[in-house]
Each structure stands twice: as structure tokens, then as C-alpha cells.
Amino acid sequence: MAKNISQLVRIKASPSEVFAALVDSEKHAAFTGAPASIEPRAGGQFSAYDGYITGMITELLQDKLLVLQWNGDQFQSQARRSAVDETLKQGHYSSVTFMLDADEDGTRLRFFQQGVPDDLYDELANGWHEHYWDKLKAALEK
């Protein structure tokens, strides 16, 4: 059974700065501290954290919206542990959505991840904070 992650993050930087950090390979690598390769267009491929995360951009609206088909190495590890989950064995992708809106302090980022395997929910929900939101704030907030 799959779960969904929903998070609201406030970042003291403009939507343009936040968006650029998410879709520009060099800026993404700078804030995460790991290599990234991102083709910032619908249909573009991406990898982050030195290939640990891979997928495709399905929707992109400058400074407002980013939708990804997202796969992490932990999906493959989970597939090896779970002989009964055919979806994971076939290369599971979850849908990840970043929605950005300007607010009085910078950016309100609404985040959704759909199709998270039950056993990975806590790891991924915590991982977004540790590996993305905390690092984005540290890099962008002035």
C-alpha cells in the first residue's frame, strides 16, 4: 500500500531563488553538496545526490510549479527486500510536486509526494526535511 507525503515549508527567499535552486544543476549541487544534473524542461531528465535520486520533469511553470516522476535508491532497496511488491520490482516512480507562492517572508513551498511505499514513508518524510528544506534554508535565507 502506498502513502502520500504533504509538507508546508516557508523559506526566506524569493520564489525565483527557490525555483532556481531546485532546477539549476549547479545551484542544486551547491545547496545539497552533491552532484546534480537537471534538464529544466518538461520531459527533461534529472539526477541528484550523485545519482541517488533520478527521474523526469513532467511539468514546469517558472517560479511556481515543478512536478517530477521521482525514484530514489531506497525504492530499489525496498524492492529487493519485498518479494511481494511487483510495482517496486518494475522500477517504481512516485509523483513529487513543488508548488511555490510568494508570501510576506519569502516563499511558501507546498510539497506533495504520492506513491510512497509504506515501509519508506518515515524515511522519506524525514529525508525531505534533512536533505532539502534544511539545506535550502541554510543556502538561501539571508
What does this structure look like?
The protein has helices at residues 15-23, 25-32, 73-81, 86-89, 121-140, and strands at residues 2-11, 37-38, 45-48, 53-61, 65-72, 94-103, 106-117. It is built from 5 helices and 7 strands. Helices cover 35% and strands 39% of the residues. Strand 6 (94-103) and strand 7 (106-117) form a beta hairpin. Helix 1 packs across helix 2 (25-32). The N and C termini lie far apart (41 Å). The longest helix is centred in the last third of the chain and has 20 residues, at 121-140.
- The radius of gyration over CA amounts to 15 Å
**Structural class of the helix and strand makeup?**
alpha+beta
Indicate the percent of residues in helices: 25-40%
Topology, number of strands: 7
Gap from first CA to last CA:
41 Å
Strand coverage percent: 35-45%
Largest sheet: 7 strands, antiparallel
Our count of helices gives 5
Query: Unreliable runs, pLDDT <50, ≥5 residues?
Result: 78-90
For the largest sheet, list the strands in their spatial order: 1-7-6-5-4-3-2
Strand/helix succession: EHHEEEEHHEEH
What number is the mean pLDDT?
88
3D shape = globular
Key traits:
142 residues, seven-stranded antiparallel beta sheet, 5 helices, globular, 35% helix, alpha+beta
